[in-house]
Amino acid sequence: MKIFFAIFALLAMVLAVYPFLGDEPQGGSVTGLPWQIDILDDGSTRIFGLNIGVSRLADARTVLGDDMELAIIASTDVEEVGSLEMYYGHYRAGLLSGKLILHTATSEGMLAQWRDNAEKSDYMPSGYARKYTLSADDKPRVLQETISGITFIPAVNLDEETVLARFGEPAERIELPGTTHYLYPEKGLDIAVHEASKEVMQYVSPKRFDSLVQPLR
Predict the structure, then answer these.
(1) 3-state helix, strand, coil in the chain (%, to 5)
(2) pLDDT tens for each residue of 76-116
């Protein structure tokens, strides 16, 4: 029985990492994969079927579906209004799965107004942030906010080999304690490979790539 569970666990791990190491599906049948980044004529990028800096949250709901949460997330240990996020906890493209978070550059004034109108607020599991559930009256206006960035957290742990296999050689690496950042400015992409936690991929418009890099320096 122990051997069976060991084999099952190994098979599950192989299936999880396969999308990053395997060949591209023939005919391009699977879309929405994290390395399928289109650089458009105006210099912007399209990823997960969304054009960063152009597509709105309403477009994301059309492309990705309604299985998401829409809320304002604010830290509890600093005084801040927070940020508007659309969260997909079960994103899937082919065999690949993970968590997808869409960000906006909403003004503090609007965030404060929507927070005041929130239906409820709850502490996040970490205890360091609160989630404000938006009111039904505000959601139509909220869904018109433009997507300024996307975060993808794959379900499988990655290493340098898998990152380079799918995304190519980065323009730069930044080493921080326990984390290596692989930077792709022409794609507006920062891949953070952590020693002790899940990897994080952050996508922004290439024109705004410095907003990702400056905090690392």
Answers:
(1) 30, 35, 35
(2) 877 788 999 999 999 999 888 999 999 999 999 999 999 99
What number of other Cβ atoms are within 10 A of residue 74's Cβ? 19
Q: What is the CB neighbour count within 10 angstroms for residue 179?
A: 16
CA distance 19 to 152: 15
Q: pTM for the complete prediction?
A: 0.85
Q: How far is it, in rounded angstroms, from Cα 55 to Cα 71?
A: 18
Q: Which of 56, 57, 69, 77 is nearest to 133 (CA)?
A: 69
Structural domain boundaries of the chain? 2-24+32-55+146-216
Task: Give the per-residue pLDDT at 10.
Answer: 38
**Is the Cβ–Cβ distance between 182 and 173 less than 8 Å?**
yes
What is the average pLDDT value for the chain, to the nearest integer? Answer: 87
Distance CA(28)–CA(38), nearest Å, equals 14
Q: Which of 190, 186, 192, 202 is nearest to 159 (CA)?
A: 192
DSSP 103-139: EE---HHHHHHHHHT-SEEEE-TTSSEEEEEPPTTTH
Q: What is d(CA 203, CA 185) in angstroms, rounded to the nearest whole number? A: 10
Instruction: Please enumerate in sequence order all residues whose Cβ is within 8 A of that of 89, keeping only pairs 6 or more positions apart, or say none.
Output: 68, 69, 99
Among residues 3, 200, 21, the alpha carbon closest in space to that of 96 is found at: 21
Q: What pLDDT, in 10s, does the model give residues 142-164?
A: 999 999 999 999 998 888 999 99
> In 3-state terms, what secondary structure has residue 1?
coil
